[in-house]
Amino acid sequence: MNIGFIGVGTMGRVMTLRLMAAGHRVSAWNRSPHALADLEGVIALTDPALAFKQEVVISMLADDRAVRQVLLSSDALARAGKGCVHIVMSTLSPALINELQASHEQAGIELVAAPMFGVPTVVAQGEANILASGAADAIEKIQPLLDVLGKKTWRMGDRPVQACIAKIAGNMMITQAIESLSEATRLVEAYGLPPSAFVETVTQTLFACPSYQRYGHYVANRVHEPGFKLSLGLKDVDLALRAAEAVALELPAARVVRAGMSAAITQGLGDRDWSAFATIEQPRPLDTQPIRYRGNTMTIEMLAARLEALESRAAIESLISGYANAYDLMDIDLLRSLWHPDATLELPDFGVGRNLEEIAAMAHTSWIKLPHMHHWMSNPMIHIQGTMATATVAADCLFHDREKGPVQVSGLYHDRFERRDDQWRFSARRFELHFLTPLPNWAPIAGSETFERV
C-alpha cells in the first residue's frame, strides 16, 4: 500500500520502519527534514499536502498546535486524492478531533482516529494496542496497516472523537497508577518494608497488569530513563482536564497528578520518563479545603479555574474590540499585536492572509481602498477549552469606498484563538458576508469625518 506519513518523531520513526518491513511504500514529511535522512527507503516530501496524494495518510504530529499549523491552516486536505483515508494516531483534544472531522467531511476525506497504547519499544515489537474509531468501511480498508503496527485493534465506535477520548482517559489512568505506586511505596518504606518487595507482590497479585508492573519497577528502583517523556505526559493530563471541563466534570485525582508533574518539570525532569514525578515527595501545591461561595461548596482549585476562565474571556473580548479599533484607527502596531505569527485572516475582496506579514499587508491595502471605517462588534459567542477557543462575532460596518462611496457591510466573524506563552491571540479569523448595501445618498450632517467621494 502507498502510505503518506506526516510527523516522523521517535514514535513515527518506529512506525515507518515497521510499515516498510511489511512491504509498504512510505512517503514522509517532517518539519525537520534531517529526521528522514537515515531512513533508507522512505521518500522525503517537501510539502505535507503531498502525503494526501497517497491511498492512506498517517499523521503523528505532536499536539493540537502542530496539527492546526500543518493541516488546518494549509490546503493539504483540499488537495487530497480521491478515496484517501487519513489516520490520526497522535493524542489530540476532543475539540480538535471534532474540528478535523468537520474539515474532512467538507473535503470528502475519511478520517479515522487510531491512537495507540504503547511506548516506542512496545510499538517496535508490534505489541501495541490500537484504539480505532471512524467509518467502518474506512477502518476495514486500513486494517492491514493497523495489524502491522499493533497486536490488536479495539473498535471504539463510528466517531473519531470516541477513540480520542478513550486514549486520553487511558493515559490519565496510567498516571494515576504511577501516583498510587508512589504513595504506596513511600508508605511501606516508612515502616521498613523495601519498596521492591512490596511492588513485586502487588504486581503479581492484586495489580498483575503491564502498567503496574512496568511503572512499579521504575518507582521502586527509582529508574526513570526516557520512555514516554514527562512533558508529554503533562500535556495528556491537561487534555483530560480540559475535556472534563468541556462537559462540566471534575477530575480531582487528575489534578493531584498534574500538580506532581508540574513540580517535577520545574525541577528539570521534563525529559525523563513520565513516572519521574513519583520522585517528588514534598507537599503538592493543591489546596482541597472546601470554600462556600454563593451557596456552593468549592475548592481553591475550582475558584482558580473560574478566575482563569474569566480572565481568558476578557482577553478574547479585548482582541475582538482591538481588531475593530486597529482597523478604524489605521493602527498597524495595534493590529500586529492581536495575532500569532502563523495566524490566518480571510476577508471577502481582500483574499487570505496566511501569516502576520500578509495580514498587515492586507490591512494597508484595505486602508487605501477604504479610507474611512467604522466597525461595530456585537453578540460574541465565545467557547474556551484550555489553551484554545472559538467564537462567532456579529459585525456591522460602515465604510467609505473610494469608488462606491459609503457602503454598509454586515456579517459574521468566525474566530479561533490560542493561548501561547500565557498570551491569547488570534490564530484564525474568517468573515462571512451577509449583505453589502451601497448608500449612495447617505452623508453625515455633523461630526469630525466627511464621507465625500474621493
Automatic annotation (TrEMBL):
Keyword list (alphabetical) reads:
Oxidoreductase
Which parts of the sequence belong to the 3-hydroxyisobutyrate dehydrogenase-like NAD-binding domain? Answer: 165-277
What sections of the sequence does the record tag as coiled-coil?
none
GO molecular function annotations of the record: 2-hydroxy-3-oxopropionate reductase activity; NAD binding; NADP binding
Taxonomically, which superkingdom?
Answer: Bacteria
Its top-level enzyme class, in one word, is oxidoreductase
Start and end of every SnoaL-like domain?
309-430
Database matches in Pfam families: NAD_binding_11, NAD_binding_2, SnoaL_4
**EC number(s) given by UniProt:** 1.1.1.60
Report the residue ranges that make up the 6-phosphogluconate dehydrogenase NADP-binding domain in this protein.
2-154
Question: Per its record, how is this protein called by name?
Answer: 2-hydroxy-3-oxopropionate reductase
Q: Which organism is it from?
A: Pseudomonas graminis
